[in-house]
Amino acid sequence: MDFDVDMDMGLSACSAVKDRHILENSMLEDDPNENSAISQEQKNQPRWGPHHKGAQELAQLYSKGKRSQETVCIYTCILLMVANFCFILRHFQIERWTTVVFAALCGIITADFASGLVHWGADSWCSVDLPIIGKNFLRPFREHHIDPTSITRHDFIETNGDNFMLTIPCLARMFWDFLTKSNEDVQNNFSWTCYLFLLAIFVAMTNQIHKWSHTYFGLPKWVVWLQDHHIILPRLHHRIHHVAPHETYFCITTGWLNWPLEKIQFWPFLEWMITSLTGYKPRTDDFKWAQKRA
């Protein structure tokens, strides 16, 4: 009995230390007044937040051309989603409901892992100075680490444009298959089609879910309910990633895979492999922008 009590006390103490470490070393996103500073020194040279020099420079790199690309991708993706959804309803058979549920679960898990892989890659490697992909695709990742709440000030298009873009090739191929294949072929591949469609939905919504995980005020009750039940990425769970040097908990759709990937040291192993082969160290560009404090 005493052993169980001591064990519970030990786990509580470890949890308290971890929670305190997160709060002391991540931006105070739930403080609407001084959300980047907890001391006078941090007000003069903020470690993060909208007044951070690096964050301001990165925000200014968002171009009209990038905005146009995101807008086109959003509308194209939504049209393809609606069209494919209509085709799926047309070909759906009630006895396949278990297939759809299983496909949804697999789609969520795949999307969560994919979000972690892309997030880890963009966070850890390459530079904003790279042609085309640097300012257009890596810039938001650098800005997000030194001003996490910037994503809450982005509208739907800026938040979701790139994720919607990633799903367009898959959705376009699916639409083409519905138009050109026979009903028999469609039925034979229906399970796979449901999986890909639901995966595309979850991938497209990942950054919106990510945005909600940084929104501490005014969220719809149904979103908070999904977060509280860890159906989508919870706010405090994602805060672990925002403790510098941002080297863990990369999965941002549901976050279900963060704990097991952390336990098997999945990301450190990949980083060790890449550093061993190339000599390049992870997050050097991320660190460079974080140092531009004044």
TrEMBL record:
Main localization of the protein described in the UniProt heading: membrane
Region annotated Disordered, chain positions: 30-51
InterPro entries xref list: Lipid_desat (IPR019547), Plasmalogen_desaturase (IPR052601)
GO molecular function: oxidoreductase activity
Intracellular or extracellular location(s): Membrane
Keyword field: Membrane, Transmembrane, Transmembrane helix
Parts of the chain that traverse the membrane: 72-89, 101-122, 190-209
Lipid bilayer topology: Multi-pass membrane protein
Biased composition (Polar residues): 34-45
Keyword Transmembrane: yes
Entry annotated with the keyword Ribonucleoprotein: no
Gene Ontology cellular component annotations, sorted alphabetically: membrane
Annotated Lipid desaturase domain residues: 108-285
Family affiliation: Belongs to the fatty acid desaturase CarF family.
PANTHER family documented for this protein: PLASMANYLETHANOLAMINE DESATURASE 1 (PTHR48177:SF1), TRANSMEMBRANE PROTEIN 189 (PTHR48177)
Official protein name in the record: Plasmanylethanolamine desaturase
Protein species of origin: Frankliniella fusca
